[in-house]
Amino acid sequence: MAWRVILSVLFLISSIPRSVAVGAPQVPCYFIFGDSLADNGNNNDLDTDAKANYPPYGIDFHEGATGRFTNGRNFVDIIAELLGFDEYIPPFATAKGGDILRGVNYASGGAGIRDETGRQLGDRISLNHQLQNHMVTISRIREMLGADAATYLNKCVYTIWMGSNDYINNYWMPDIYPTSKLYTPKQYAVVLIEQYEQQLKTLYSYGARRLAIFGLSEIGCTPAEISEYGTEGSLCVDKLDGEVMPFNDRLKPLIHELNRNLTGARFIYVNTYGISTTAVPAVPVTCSTCCEVKEDDQCIPFRTPCLDRSLQSYYDGFHPTETVHMEVAAIGYRALLASDAYPSDPGLDIASFTALPTVGSITSDK
Ligand SMILES: *[C@@H]1O[C@H](CO)[C@@H](O)[C@H](O)[C@H]1NC(C)=O
Known about the structure:
The chain is α/β, with parallel strands linked by helices. The chain has a single domain, classed as SGNH hydrolase (Rossmann fold, 3-Layer(aba) Sandwich). It is built from twelve helices and five strands. Strands 1-2-3-4-5 form a five-stranded mixed sheet, covered by helices on one side. Helix 1 (about 1-15) packs across helix 11, helix 2 crosses helix 11 and helix 7 (about 185-205) packs parallel to helix 9 (about 240-260). It is globular and about 55 Å long. The structure holds 2-acetamido-2-deoxy-beta-D-glucopyranose.
């Protein structure tokens, strides 16, 4: 897999603007839905244990600790750069005035497709709640743009990466959540995907037309799960990865059907499965985290993290380093391999969204 990483890295080096991007971004706006992998500060003022607004989070980020659950930029920051934005997309919690015309980041650590997911951590903004927040944004955009708002929203890029917490902070906590008693892994995937389908259709009804849906990664490879379950000689906790797989297996055909059924929409599935093991091929997946972690597998505040951060896969027990986020952004933005994104024929990726014609007649009303 090394050659693929080299390709991706070369691509990133050549396309990320070193300084401020020159000229207009490729699309006017970028909206982000997700969990801690994309959160950029929405949890900072929530009553929750899922927070990352303290060092050593952000040690490689120019503003320091912002609430991003990694050492540097997360994948949505990098996608924003690749799209040509000269500022990162603001969190819903603090986005003001005309800023929201560039897009809004609704992602919240601990959140899931299911409303109850992550409850034991404290407050979080579930995907359903993120969609309600998006309605608030849309009303504000309508106030600013009037009748042009619908066409404007059609032009935006939307990324959604949800579902990890529906396993980590729900299904795999049988003492707190009943889901693993109610459903086999395959049944749970069906239930999750049915709810996800409704949520993605809601987003479409709100005017979204260019949507990249990120599949689940190998959650069984996170240091937290490895140290909890052990690997029995394997690289990762194969049992957990096996339970996540049915979700991805169902998500791909859903993407296919949504493309077929929803007029004017382009959905892609981004294949992040395996990325934790391929992004940093020199480093085998191990239990090691870059920062020293507390019992909840988040960084202990103010401890000095590892120095070779660019060569590590995991920053804390659950969250990847910026290096892995770069790889995620790279395959989503420009799918170089047929396996990077789906449908691969015709090759669709976020970069290809920017070339799609605007379908002006589609309204953003339900
Ligand atoms: C797509 O449309 C077909 C035919 O109407 C229907 O059976 C199917 O459930 C729809 N799928 C989705 C995801 O909307």
